Amino acid sequence: MTGWTALVLAGQRPGIDPLAHAFGTEWKALVDVGGQPMLHRVVRTLLACPQVGRIVIAAQAPDLFATGWLAADPRIAFVQSQRGISHSIAAVAGTPAAPWPVLVTTADHPLLTPDMVASFLTGAGAADVAVGMVERRTMLASYPDTKRTWLRFRSGAYSGANLFALRTAKAQAALNLWAQAEQDRKQALKLFWHFGPLLALRAITRTITGPDALRTAGRRLGLDAKLVALPQAEAAIDVDKPADHALAETILSARTPAQ
């Protein structure tokens, strides 16, 4: 598992980002968590992963981010982000700037660790597309008071971990559909409706498990898709609002430097 391109999505939605505004900066990715910008934490984690050979950072203002050690490291490149997550990924994934396989994550994932990346890529195996998630029981066992968005299926509910493995060019089909469904990504019924009414019905009535739902959706696109349930609860804690920031600060303060 060497030679992955890590694509870090460091863009943000139009308008004033509430988290960035709360911390007096224009860009969410540059909000400090644990004494350094979130983007820097994510990139340092990826540089410590033996599976990752190069890192591409996609941002609306890449020149503002390409400074200091980020600009000096030859393993790091910057590209202009596009409208929406799926378009930003599709614009670079599989190109000479970011050849397959591509590991996608986000700049607001400051709790990411090399162990999480290793667990995810091991779980992804040979799938064309894999999605990292955390099962509700795993999250609540460690953080019973945290508020997450859950996709509910038979035998469990899952929250996204902002980790996506795009191993082959077949992933383009998933990206094309993602572009159509992006606004529905947190609503299971609407999301799975894009794969047909039967799968949507099974999702909403919870007569299909999460892994089976993703596997079925992948088959509709002619690819092997896999849900990877991660054992680390922190994998599903991204930093979107001040409460997330406070939780991340608490978790980081309890970690040893090696973590």
Structure description:
The chain is α/β, with parallel strands linked by helices. The chain has 2 domains: 1-110, Alpha-Beta Complex (Spore Coat Polysaccharide Biosynthesis Protein SpsA, Chain A); 132-160 and 168-240, Spore Coat Polysaccharide Biosynthesis Protein SpsA, Chain A. Helices cover 37% and strands 21% of the residues. The protein has helices spanning 18-22, 38-47, 62-65, 68-72, 85-90, 114-124, 136-142, 171-181, 188-193, 197-204, 210-220, 242-254, and strands at 4-9, 32-33, 36-37, 52-59, 76-80, 102-106, 129-135, 151-153, 156-166, 225-229. The strands form 2 sheets. Strands 1, 4, 5, 6, 7, 8, 9 and 10 form an 8-stranded mixed beta sheet that branches. It has a two-stranded antiparallel ribbon with strand order 2-3. β2 and β3 form a beta hairpin. The longest helix is centred in the last third of the chain and has 13 residues, at 242-254.
Write a short abstract of this structure.
With 259 residues, this protein is an alpha/beta fold. Helices cover 37% and strands 21% of the residues.
